[in-house]
Design brief:
152 residues; mainly alpha
Length: 152
């Protein structure tokens, strides 16, 4: 007959604990994978390439077993996978670490720019924006202050 179905009854603490434990394990697994992607991106990319190559070779073997010529078997395999580059981009997007990668890339770019021209970037830092705001407020409020003084 098969395995009996496990049903959860309302208020069953065993079922609730099982669900919570599974969610925590899934969360822990996803967190570890995302950290690994940030820390070792080259190894993760290599694994992705290896896995996609495996699927391509497997598809080619299936086409060869259907008595297709080797060139046509490869073309059909590439067509059935709808482009490996699109699949790679989709896998990268599924990791949800693009924001962090972009942030790190922007920080590296900013540090390189500061190294090339430190005087320019020092003026554009937090103090530079305060100076800009101060001069903008001063020029915007100064005519009003003159009018207020003249009216007295």
């Amino acid at each position: 007959m098969g395995a009996p179905l496990e049903r959860r009854r309302p208020g069953d603490p065993q079922g609730l604990m099982k669900d919570t434990r599974m969610r925590l394990l899934r969360w822990w697994f996803v967190l570890r994978q995302r950290i690994r992607t940030l820390v070792r991106p080259i190894a993760v990319e290599r694994e992705l390439d290896r896995e996609l190559r495996y699927h391509l070779e497997r598809e080619i073997q299936e086409n060869l077993s259907r008595n297709m010529p080797p060139d046509e078997a490869r073309r059909a395999a590439l067509r059935s996978l709808d482009g490996l580059t699109a699949i790679q981009e989709e896998c990268r997007d599924m990791r949800h670490v693009n924001h962090f990668e972009n942030l790190f890339q922007d920080l590296r770019y900013a540090l390189r720019a500061m190294g090339r021209n430190p005087g320019f970037t020092a003026g554009a830092g937090p103090g530079g924006s305060a100076r800009t705001r101060g001069s903008a407020w001063g020029s915007a409020l100064q005519p009003r202050a003159k009018h207020a003084i003249l009216r007295r």
